[in-house]
Amino acid sequence: MKTINIALVPGDGIGPEVVAEGVKVLKAIERMDEHLSFSFTEFPWGCEHYLQEGKMMADDGIEQLKAFDAIYLGAVGYPGVPDHISLWDLLLKIRKEFDQYVNLRPVTLLDESLTPLKSRTEKDIDFLVIRENSEGEYAGAGDRLFAGKPEEVVLQTGVFSRKGTERIIRYAYEEAQRTGKTLTSVSKGNALNYSMVYWDEVFEEVGMEYPDVETYSYLVDAASLYFVNDPGRFEIVVTSNLFGDILTDLGAALTGGLGLATGANVNPEKEFPSMFEPVHGSAPDIAGKGLANPLAAIWSVSQMLDFFNEERWGAEVLEVIREIIKEKDNLTPDLGGKASTADVGGSVASMLESRK
């Protein structure tokens, strides 16, 4: 029996609702696969915890999470708690402490009815963005000098280490080689004459070890244009923390919105737990109403299964999501349906079990 120990951090707003549906799907898989088991331990951390305790997570929260194989995060953010506190004191803290230096965001159109791009099909929009997830523009380095004075200066420093830059680029080359896909690097070397010139140099340097991988390199502004008018040219994309953050939300807009946007924060060596999450945010305005779309959270379950070498189940979950999307009656209002959050999760679980 293979047991995967999962720490649940449902978080804020709609987070608990969508995480519950992901857990429902995992329990359905457990019922069908006698060789696979999941254990769940829930942690009440997030903005409500901050408002009560003055901190986003327990002081020894990182130590507590170390014991788990994976972290399943719902959402972080709530009115009254500054975004930089909710982000840096929970989500980014976990990413950095557990060296989750790979962020995986699929930009995959599951049904052509979901894209705002005319005449585009599932074959035209299907690629993976590999985002550096530990440093770069989100390293937290900088300073604020002479605050409140006319000569006030604010410095936000991007950090691009040899270790950090090379390992994410090498990970992307390995993935491209393994899958036989093209690899595109996105940077801004013409304007960022230190960090992005360095990125481009490392991309070329590492690429010499992978002569069989076909590569492209675009400036981020050009890449943004191509995401919209020619998404079919991308198969695997590797880019920095900031550019990846922005481009993947653009990718979500092309494939049905943030209700279908999923992300994996991965420590490939499995020295620390990896974290899987929908990236739609906490949406406090619809929390508790059963309106939240749980498909992104369920898609992150598929990513979790893939990461733990349960690709068959990962593919099954994603295929059921595709089928659900074609049945409008089983969708939440954001996708044109009338189903509740729990209805959608239940439908996914039932359809999985019917495919056994």
From TrEMBL:
Catalytic activity of the protein: (R)-malate + NAD(+) = pyruvate + CO2 + NADH
InterPro entries attached to this UniProt entry: ICDH/IPMDH, IsoCit/isopropylmalate_DH_CS, IsoPropMal-DH-like_dom, TTC_DH
User: Domain of life here?
Assistant: Bacteria
- Report keywords, A-Z: Manganese, Metal-binding, NAD, Oxidoreductase
**Taking every annotated instance into account, which residue ranges of this chain make up the domain Isopropylmalate dehydrogenase-like?**
5-348
Q: Which Pfam families match?
A: Iso_dh (PF00180)
**Group of enzyme by EC:** oxidoreductase
What this protein needs as a cofactor is: Mg(2+); Mn(2+)
Residue span of region Disordered? 335-356
Look up the EC number in the record and give it: 1.1.1.83
Q: Which PROSITE patterns match?
A: IDH_IMDH
Q: Which family does it belong to?
A: Belongs to the isocitrate and isopropylmalate dehydrogenases family.
The protein here is known as D-malate dehydrogenase (decarboxylating)
